[in-house]
């Protein structure tokens, strides 16, 4: 199987890889962005509301993949309002507590 299609399947998508990104839903676009991230293999990952426009099932897929990337010694900064998601990471910085 083609590597791009394999990575798309990992993020829960079974799409024609030639499909125009703007024709995808917000959640599909978010998962395509994660697939691109996996293919680029960065050392540092910035994730702003990574599950924000996803349903529960696809949100779990995305979180599991992000946590797997952490196991590969990546540095990750995640911005989220989801406290349950935040609890799954090693360090939590609550911005409201930093205000003086």
Biggest sheet record: 2 strands, parallel
Low-confidence stretches: none
Shape: globular
Tally of individual helices: 5
Q: What's the multimeric state?
A: single chain
What's the CATH superfamily, by name? P-loop containing nucleotide triphosphate hydrolases
Strand content: 5-15%
CATH topology: Rossmann fold
Total individual domains: 1
Percentage of residues assigned to helices:
40-55%
Q: How far apart are the first and last residues' alpha carbons, in Å?
A: 54 Å
**CATH class identity:** Alpha Beta
The helix/strand series, from N terminus to C terminus, equals: HHEHEHH
Overall SS class? mainly alpha
GO molecular function, one term: ATP binding
Protein name: Bacteriocin export ABC transporter, lactococcin 972 group family protein
Keywords: Hydrolase
EC number: 3.6.3.-
């Amino acid at each position: 199987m083609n590597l791009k299609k394999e990575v798309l399947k990992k993020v829960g998508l079974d799409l024609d890889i030639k499909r125009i990104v703007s024709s995808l839903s917000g959640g599909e676009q978010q998962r395509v962005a994660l697939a691109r991230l996996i293919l680029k293999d960065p050392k540092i990952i910035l994730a702003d509301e990574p599950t924000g426009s996803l349903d529960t099932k696809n949100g779990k897929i995305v979180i599991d993949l992000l946590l797997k990337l952490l196991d590969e010694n990546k540095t990750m900064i995640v911005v989220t309002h989801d406290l349950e998601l935040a609890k799954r990471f090693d360090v939590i910085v609550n911005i409201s507590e930093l205000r003086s």
